[in-house]
Amino acid sequence: MENPLLLFPQLNISASKDKPYYKVMKSAIKEEPHKASKPGAKQKRNRLSLLLQKPEFHDGDHLGKSGNLTKAASVSPEEAAKWRESFDKLLSEKAGLDAFTKFLKTEFSEENIEFWIACEDYKKSKSAHELLPKAKTIFETFIQKDAPKEVNLDFHTKEVTSQSIGQPLRSTFDAAQSTVYRLMEQDSYPRFLSSALYRSLLQGRAPGRAPLRRRSRSFTVSDFQGARPDFTV
Q1: Which GO BP terms apply (predicted)?
Q2: What pLDDT is recorded for position 22?
Q3: Which residues have a Cβ under 8 Å from the Cβ of 109 and sit 6 or more positions away?
Q4: Cβ(49)–Cβ(105) below 8 Å
Q5: Superfamily for the 77-203 domain
Q6: For the residues 61-89, what does the mean pLDDT come to?
Q7: Phi and psi dihedrals of 4, rounded to 5?
């Protein structure tokens, strides 16, 4: 297997680990334009995804700090058992978010949780002038056609979001974030609860390497069309 750092020498993970999430993504998009439309784009996108993985997302009140996903293994069985109460409960705890992210990577659908995290970071912007560059980076990374980490959104949600990018508000991505949240809650979350990774945490064991599986298509945004956006996390 080719060394990813040889393919993307402009990305230095150790140097960028303390940068805000959107700056890391913006740099990657700028250096690798239109890759999704070229031959071999799937393989290159997977390599880019590997380089941009940010396994630890919390640092106090901030999201986007890099770390080690295996820290999720230190969670107690009692704490892990509480994650079955609700999807909200799982995402509200750092160890739960880390474990769920690790699970999504085995299904090659980590763009969903990365988008959700990017939206959370976006809403924490301290000033209005931060919104525009962050909004453009999130849009180019996750929403526009052939984006390197394009999430599955219905046409209406994508259009509404696109129209507000020029003058973004803190609520610009609320509808899209709510849609992706519902997809994860209805599709990925139940599989996570039945996964070997989660069972190992319930038994107090460090999770082993989970087998990779093809991306599930059992749920799509069409299953939730007509539902009123209600992002409550």
Answers
A1: negative regulation of signal transduction
A2: 55
A3: 188, 215, 216
A4: no
A5: Regulator of G-protein Signalling 4, domain 2 (1.10.167.10)
A6: 70
A7: -60, -30
Distance (Å, whole) CA 90 – CA 98: 10
Token pair for 184: 């994860």
Residue type at 94 in one-letter notation:
K
Q: What are the φ and ψ backbone dihedral angles of 14, each rounded to 5 degrees? A: -65, -35
DSSP-assigned letter for residue 59: E
List pLDDT tens digits, range 152-181. 999 999 999 999 999 999 999 999 999 999
Estimate the crossing angle of helix 155-163 against helix 174-183, to 10 degrees: 150
Residue 218 pLDDT > 60: no
Q: Output the six-digit token pair for 4.
A: 């990813």
Amino acid at the residue 81: A
Least Cα distance to 11 among 22, 25, 21, 2 occurs for: 25
Class of residue 221 by CB neighbours under 10 A (exposed 0-12, middle 13-18, buried 19+) = buried
Which two three-digit tokens encode residue 145?
A: 């056609």
Which one-letter amino acid corresponds to residue 198? Y
Contact at 8 Å (CB) between 112 and 183? Answer: yes
CA distances from 115 to 56, 119, 173 (A): 14, 6, 10
- Determine the Cα–Cα distance for residues 8 and 11; give it in Å rounded to an integer: 6
